[in-house]
Amino acid sequence: MEYPLDFKQYSDALTRNKLLGLKCGNCSAIRCPPKMTCQECGGLELAIVELSGMGEIKTFTHTFVAPQGRECEAPYILVLVELEEGPWISGNLIGISPDRVNMELIGRKVELGHKVFSGDCYSSGPAARPLFCFKE
Q1: How many domains does one find in the chain?
Q2: Residue 30 included in any domain
Q3: CA distances from 135 to 47, 51, 53, 75 (A)
Q4: DSSP letters of 44-86?
Q5: What is the pTM of this model?
Q6: Percent of the chain at pLDDT above 90?
Q7: Is residue 38 part of a domain?
Q8: Adjacent-strand bridge partners of 134
Q9: Cα distance between residue 12 and residue 28, in whole Å
C-alpha cells in the first residue's frame, strides 16, 4: 500500500506553516494529523488536502513536566483545537503565560504556527509540531 502523506512530508509542510491532512474518497472525512486509513469508514482512498489552520479551542491542559530532553520548556499549555474543516488537533498555545490561563480559553479562536522540536531518545530527530496563537 502506498501511503499518500508520510510524517516527513507533514513535518516539512508545517515548517512552511502549511497544515496538511488527508480527505477520504469514500466518506469525505478529513483527518489531521494524517493516519494510514480513514478513521470514520476505514477507507484507503486518501487524498492530501491543505487545511486553513484556523480553529477554536475546545479544551486545554497545563503541562508542568515536559518530555525528557525538553524540560526547559515547562510549564506550557497544550490545547485541543477543532479546525474549521472539522478535524481536532493538539498543539502548544503561545502568546499567554501559563499562570494566566483559565476556562475563558475555551471557545477562543486560534491560528496555526509551528515549532521545530529537537529530537529526544524517543524520536528519529528534529520535527515540526503544530502550535497555536490567538487569532487577531
Answers
A1: 1
A2: yes
A3: 28, 16, 11, 22
A4: --EEEEEE--EEEEEEEEEE-SPPTT-GGG-SEEEEEEEETTS
A5: 0.86
A6: 57
A7: yes
A8: 110
A9: 25
